[in-house]
UniProtKB/TrEMBL annotation, chains A, B:
Domain of life: Bacteria
Pfam families named among the record's database cross-references: TetR_N
A single MF term (Gene Ontology): transcription cis-regulatory region binding
One annotated GO biological process: response to antibiotic
Keywords carried by this UniProt record: DNA-binding, Transcription, Transcription regulation
Stretch list, region Disordered: 1-30
InterPro entries xrefs: Homeodomain-like_sf, HTH-type_TetR-like_transc_reg, HTH_TetR, Tet_transcr_reg_TetR, Tet_transcr_reg_TetR-rel_C_sf
Record's protein name: TetR/AcrR family transcriptional regulator
Annotated ranges, domain HTH tetR-type: 31-91
Record has DNA repair as a keyword: no
PANTHER family named among the record's database cross-references: HTH-TYPE TRANSCRIPTIONAL REGULATOR RUTR, TRANSCRIPTIONAL REGULATORY PROTEIN
Record feature DNA-binding region, as residue ranges: 54-73
DNA sequence: CCGACTTTTCGAACGCGTTCCGAAAGTAGC
DNA sequence: GCTACTTTCGGAACGCGTTCGAAAAGTCGG
């Protein structure tokens, strides 16, 4: 029954720093470093757009065979996470508020904005253990949410639960936004709103043609506030360790 | 700035009923009906599993050429939505509570459970205008959420906003769950929890190895309740049409 | 110097979703 | 019975992510 969502880990398949083992290594030496591949990927994206980032094109840009790339990364998702860490690394890190609730909201908004500004985030954001694949330089957003929850009096379990709720809501918004934008860029129909049976779905029929207008608004902040307030209200305000663990969580 | 999320429409590219134009039609007559294709798809899924549902295999199962399928549906996403509607049609429709908040929760849970039980939902749930592609026999879940919101005193804008919040949260949970389950089925590493810098991310470091255990719990219901309560609390309780539209929504 | 051993490189191939375009098979008008 | 016209059919091909296996290029122990 319990779904297995993103757990963190220090360094998984895709580490961040280019490990320096050019000394006394056995086997054929590499002709291309990971840094060179990432640089080629950035060049390719800047020049042709991120949807043109394919394995073969990247290999051509880097001047190597396509299959050689698979000795530097497990699959394309790995490459995207590498690029994401690289992108977040360059991001400036704003100061977070001290007040717990404000810190949660600021951290979540930073997380959301980082993903929203990264058009190809949708392709990896739901990877198993995604959060655990982030560099420590990106984990400050997760830390901000968890620390805010703990600072408000949540137990560890409640804090992780709050983060997961925020994560689900955020990643859902990002993915729907990304796919809508993609289709909208293509020649999509305006999705008018035709004949709904008013006796079966009266409220939807009443909204009718207004739906597209209403659904086009950016309601992420309101939803985030509502979610966080609701979760914080359900959390025990006893700041002592694990007390009251039976309340407010899946018992 | 405003993202364009799922708007409904009565019947888009993928209608539900097999239209009956076998009379006086010009052009070459079809050898295969849409119903036959869907039946072949269900057969294929039941026999080999849904991950084996590919265009070519489906064509072979239906006894037609692969490219012929594209005269019956726009693309594979269309096929999946056809199958989803077909699946939801057979679903029993539980009675919904009268009380607005309870109706919202019941409708959202039904939506969530329907998607969660449909393993390939993740591939289409974020399609642009997804909700609008649903048959009326599936829209009762959306109607339940919107009607609950309106019944609580929300304006149309607030009701649509509430639905979108619930939709984002739900689809995020579904997608993360689906991708986690997929990887976990394969030989995934246990995602332990290595060495985090306690001075940079103290709370994450403190949680440490407990994260997987805490993240494995099913916290969807708590998050849903929190989100709905928060959004209802922010909505104006004036049940008169569009009054108070400036409050609680994107002004 | 020479065979193990290890690692990298990459051409060939697979199955995928999808597009192109010519051939086939009907109806409609004459 | 012909000639349009319209629609369906499906083989060929494209680019995609990914796997396989053989060749290449180093280190190491003797």
């Amino acid at each position: 029954m319990a779904p297995p969502p993103p757990p963190p880990a220090s360094s998984a398949s895709s580490a961040s720093s280019a490990s320096p083992p050019p000394q006394g290594r056995t086997g054929r030496p590499r002709l291309t470093s990971r840094a060179q591949i990432l640089a080629a990927a950035r060049r390719l994206i800047d020049r042709d757009g991120w949807e043109k980032l394919t394995i073969r094109r990247l290999a051509a840009e880097a001047g190597i065979g396509a299959t050689t790339l698979y000795h530097h990364m497990r699959d394309k998702g790995d490459l995207l996470i590498l690029l994401l860490n690289d992108y977040v690394d360059r991001l400036e890190r704003p100061p977070l508020p001290e007040e717990p609730r404000a810190r949660i909201l600021a951290s979540a908004t930073a997380l959301h904005d980082a993903l929203a500004a990264w058009p190809w985030a949708a392709e990896v954001a739901t990877t198993d253990g995604f959060v655990g694949l982030l560099d420590e330089s990106a984990l400050w957003m997760v830390e901000g949410i968890v620390s805010g929850a703990v600072g408000h009096g949540c137990t560890q379990a409640q804090a992780v639960g709050l983060f997961r709720g925020v994560w689900y809501y955020t990643v859902g918004e990002i993915l729907v936004r990304a796919h809508s934008a993609g289709r909208r860029a293509a020649g999509g129909r305006p999705t008018g709103f035709g004949s709904l049976d008013a006796s079966r779905v009266p409220h939807l029929a009443a909204i009718g043609a207004r739906w597209p207008e209403l659904a086009a608004r950016d309601t992420y902040p309101e939803g985030l506030r509502a979610l966080v307030d609701g979760l914080l209200a359900g959390a025990t305000p006893t700041p002592s360790g694990e007390a009251g663990r039976a309340r407010g969580d899946a018992g």
